[in-house]
Design goal:
single chain, 398 residues, alpha/beta, Aspartate Aminotransferase, domain 1, Aspartate Aminotransferase, domain 2, seven-stranded mixed β-sheet, 38% helix, 14% strand, globular, binds pyridoxal-5'-phosphate
Length: 398
């Protein structure tokens, strides 16, 4: 009899989002006229920007004519898009060869697929609270997970230490869920640690576009030594509203080698075996993001979400709540009031003010007692949610 991958049996049920959906469904059944203010979702609400939409339309027209039609695209990405991305990095002082950029269908796909490059015996270090996919993808592959908890004492930005040595290190900055961002010197310590131990950092930069402080690193490759220890996984999902359009990219430097093997060559081999590339149309839309017009338009959209963050942060400030994130990230990570648990706070918010957020306990044990608000909702909903949150936290009438 065929033996399935038995590691799947070790996965915990996707308790977090399932439980949120269940609780909100039950509430709506009991209160069919209620309107919910959904501040939990990690999905964007603004449409694609005009420069991208125009490029997508033009690309559809190309596919309608024999002279401009494209069949299979190169597996590692269209040269025009790889060039545009490498240029974009160059503009920020990071020198890359075009073929160090690999186009993907999004960061999630890539975070799973990249694990093909590593031996199953390698341990994966996850800094908690963490995006749940890091843990699950490694459990599926049968890897041991090493957890490094963080908290208010280190502003949710833990330092490397010998006790947490692992071959793979996940870093996410700006972080989902905490919104914390590594400073240059903090990130440099992780780079030095990885180089000293022969580890590889998987640097999830899905939210880099939200960094506004000029001295914070947006790419790990801004730091000396990163090209010999890091892979950067990027996404246009939150940067440019591609959650439903699907496009991302990965930077894998040619200097990255372990045990005499170049990971760049291995990844080319992997891609040319396991994909037939990303759609021409979508890649054309993606390339428009990197034009001056596209950059100006996505900056406007990001500004909209940042104003949402400012609205929520003003309410939390007025209520004297402890929180981090929000400034350089689209997530606000709040300490639940009065020491209550994160699921109890979820229930309280839902029942009393119909605001839905994400309980911190869903991102690892050390997330208990915290709560995540996303800033991707509409302005109208964010304003009302902030008003309701403030009234709940200050016990003022609604
Ligand atoms: N990485 C982090 C930290 C995320 O929060 C998300 C999505 O929410 C992803 C990766 C996945 O991004 P994509 O839409 O490109 O698959």
């Amino acid at each position: 009899m065929m033996t399935p991958n038995l590691h799947y049996a070790q996965l915990k049920d996707s308790y977090l989002f399932y439980n949120i959906a269940q609780k909100t469904r039950l509430f709506l059944e009991e209160h069919p006229d209620a309107k919910l203010y959904r501040m939990g979702i990690g999905d964007v609400t603004l449409p694609l920007c005009p420069a991208v939409v125009r490029a997508l339309h033009e690309a559809v027209e190309d596919q309608a004519c024999q002279e401009t039609f494209h069949g299979y695209m190169p597996e590692c990405g269209a040269p025009f898009l790889r060039r545009a991305i490498a240029e974009h990095y160059r503009g920020r002082g990071v020198d890359l060869d075009e073929d160090e950029v690999f186009v993907s269908s999004g960061a999630s796909d890539e975070l799973g697929d990249l694990l093909d490059l590593f031996d199953r015996s390698s341990r994966a270090l996850v800094l908690e609270p963490a995006y749940p996919a890091y843990v699950d993808a490694n459990i599926m592959a049968g890897r041991e997970i090493v957890r490094l908890p963080s908290g208010r004492e280190n502003s949710f930005l833990p330092e490397p230490c010998v006790a947490t040595r692992a071959e793979l290190i996940y870093l996410c900055s700006p972080n989902n869920p905490t919104g914390a961002v590594f400073s240059r010197s903090q990130l440099q310590r992780w780079v030095d640690f990885a180089n000293a131990n022969g580890s590889i950092i998987l640097f999830d930069a899905a939210y880099e576009a939200f960094i506004e402080d000029k001295d914070l690193p947006r790419s790990i490759f801004e730091l000396p030594g990163a090209k010999t220890c890091a892979i950067e996984i990027c996404s246009l999902s939150k940067t440019a509203g591609f959650t439903g359009t699907r496009l991302g990219f990965t930077v894998l430097p040619k200097a990255l080698e372990r045990k005499g093997m170049r990971l760049h060559d291995m990844w080319v081999r992997n891609r040319t075996t396991k994909t037939n590339g990303v759609s021409y149309i979508i890649q054309r839309g993606g390339a428009a993001v990197f034009t001056p017009e596209g950059q100006a338009q996505i900056t406007e959209n990001i500004r909209y979400y940042k104003e949402n963050a400012a609205i929520l942060m003003r309410a939390l400030d007025k209520a004297d709540a402890w929180y981090c994130g929000g400034k350089n990230a689209p997530y606000i990570w709040m300490r639940c009031p009065g020491g209550i648990g994160s699921w109890d706070f979820f229930d309280l918010l839902l029942e009393r003010v119909q605001v839905v957020g994400t309980p911190g306990a869903g991102f690892g044990t050390c997330g208990e007692g915290y709560f995540r608000f996303s800033t991707f909702a509409s302005r109208e909903d964010t304003l009302e949610a902030a008003r309701r949150l403030l009234s709940l936290l200050t016990c003022a009438p609604l």
